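pipeline: protein-struct stage 2 | run 1193 | DUF2200 domain-containing protein
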Amino acid sequence: MAITSDKHNERIAKMTFASVYPHYITKVEKKGRTKDELHEVISWLTGFTVDDLNQLINDKVTFSDFFNRANLHPNANLIKGVICGYRVEEIDNKLTQQVRYLDKLVDELAKGKKMDKILRN
């Protein structure tokens, strides 16, 4: 298990989705992917529609609230690999792991992976 510190986990839990979302857009668009593709990836992981995302952004929900409201895809556990120096499948804190799942999917999208691979079909 990858041990993340309590301080690290707390910082992630209190971070707002709205503060990170623009960075996701910038990252994928800089690599030639679209906002629609980003939404598809986020929707696959969380079950949120674009309207849901806009509401969550407007409400400035924390990642803790974001993932408490999400319906995580049953195949989310198939997301593997290293992100931010941690192997996502080994992260011991559930919320931190879920945030890193999202980071990993955004990363794969930006790196040009095919959508069916990203969505674990």
